[in-house]
Amino acid sequence: MRQLADALGGNGAGPRLSADYRSRGWWSPDLLDELVLDTRGHRGRRAALVGDGRVLTGFELDAAVSGCAARLARCGTRPGENVLVQLPNQPQLVILVLALIRLGARPVLAPPTLREHELAPVLSSVRPAAMAVPVRQARFDHLRFAEELRERHPFVRSLLVSGGVDPARGHLDLDEFAAAEEAAPVAGGPRRPSDTALFLLSSGTTGAPKPIPRTHEAFGHVIRASAAASALTPDSVYLAVLPVTHSFAFGHPGILGALVHGGKAVLGAPGDPAGAMALIERERVTHCALTPAVARQWLTVHAASHGPDLSSLEVLQVGGARLDEQTARQLGDAFGCRIQQVYGMSEGLLNFSRLDDPPEVVFSTQGRPVSPGDETLVVDGRGRPVADGETGELLARGPGVITAYHGDTDTASFTSDGFYRTGDLVHRRPSGDFVVVGRVKDVINRGGEKIPAGELEALVQRHPGVRAAAAVPMPHRVLGETVCLYVVDGEEGSATLREIRRFLEDCGLAPFKLPESVVRVPALPLTGTGKIDKKRLREDIANRVEAEREVSP
Ligand code: AMP
């Protein structure tokens, strides 16, 4: 099906729209690695990638990518194969991803926080020939985890490992693969701009993350359009402190946006605001992307520190979850730079507030589409467009937006004429700017990481101490939302928060999805139609949190 869609016209947009996108120049014939690694003129001699104590110029990065591609080919990686990449922010990640693309193989970018519960369906769907992982990640034995996954999914032939390889276990040394500094001929297959260059993962609204195929031409468009809205230039220095395996820091515009413009990409560690600020000073960072939760942490750390000189910072982009107006204003004041709201999704629709928008627009809206080709509709429950100012679900179609997931799963996420249903409730201002007011989908947004409520409920109900469960967002000062579970005790007794967390971990659920609070109730409230009344539960937990804050502010 995907091959058919590719043959018909790239993004699956159909021949008419595809021809239109190409004739207007929204889809250019560039291949992604060539777009990103253009070393013409002075660009090749300037620093392009910084991380883990390594500095690579454009020429060195290009050579490392070719060297890595040649080694991958020698070890049997073939064009058309998929490789799951679950690495932290380090140069090896960038080199490997671009090398796979150069080879015509397809990286599947998976955030390092995902565990077996999320990854097993992804593996079954894309059947990767290899997985790239670090030996360890904080206290998590990532290599052992990958070995266990490989045992259960024998189509994974090899493990590419960073951080110390034991040759006796037959793993491939990613650090060595990515260290090559000489250009080498690449035995890749023929590639077309309409081919899938890589896969991102959806944040999963109903359960497992879904692979999102991104063609060279559609993803190239997204990078170029978002980089232009971010005013990236050859003098820009982009700092990635969100995981680069997620689209925001990767290509929206992320590190690839910086590289496309001949700028420099700096890789920082997530969860270390003080370290990030030291990097801003050292590398003279101009652009950085944060979630609102991380932005709040930055504000706290910044207020307590007198140190680093952050005067190089020009733009702080904030997205992934709704940024409240107060935090937006505080950020602008504290960091003395422009704030840019980013409301987007890995499926490809990107809305940015513009850098020359008046403060009121920047602080209180989530911006408007960056692509001139994006068509958006705000519709009611029956799919009928609503007037500006009225709330409805946002639908989108355009040169950067996908029209199908890999394998054509979840066709319900698309309308018959190719619009993607975002599942977000918004209203549009007459200026075209969107304000995100809620969501149709039942997802908890924990500091930008999405947790499908249904997935959690189905798992926790397997615990003998739980008869019924409902997961709802609980207001949190820094993260915005965390998970609260309302549970009805099972026949065989009850379960504490600790027991539930341990049980879910043992089920292989990603740690960020674990509940922070459990409320035991005799029965879950129901709506008139017999559904769990989540609205009531959301109100209930918000009231409880508010009451607690009053007691201990
Ligand atoms: P992801 O694909 O993981 O980037 O998640 C996309 C989803 O995150 C969107 O559909 C929204 O629900 C949410 N989201 C992203 N940016 C914002 C924002 N600026 N404001 C509110 N929600 C957002």
UniProtKB/TrEMBL annotation:
MF-aspect GO terms: acid-thiol ligase activity
Tree of life domain: Bacteria
Pfam families registered for this protein in UniProt: AMP-binding, AMP-binding_C
Residue stretches making up the AMP-dependent synthetase/ligase domain: 43-405
PROSITE patterns in UniProt: AMP_BINDING
UniProt feature coiled coil, ranges: none
Annotated segments matching region Disordered: 363-392
Span of domain AMP-binding enzyme C-terminal: 455-531
Stored PANTHER family: LONG-CHAIN-FATTY-ACID--COA LIGASE (PTHR43767), NONRIBOSOMAL PEPTIDE SYNTHASE PES1 (EUROFUNG)-RELATED (PTHR43767:SF1)
Protein name according to UniProt: Adenylate-forming protein
Source organism of this protein record: Streptomyces caelestis
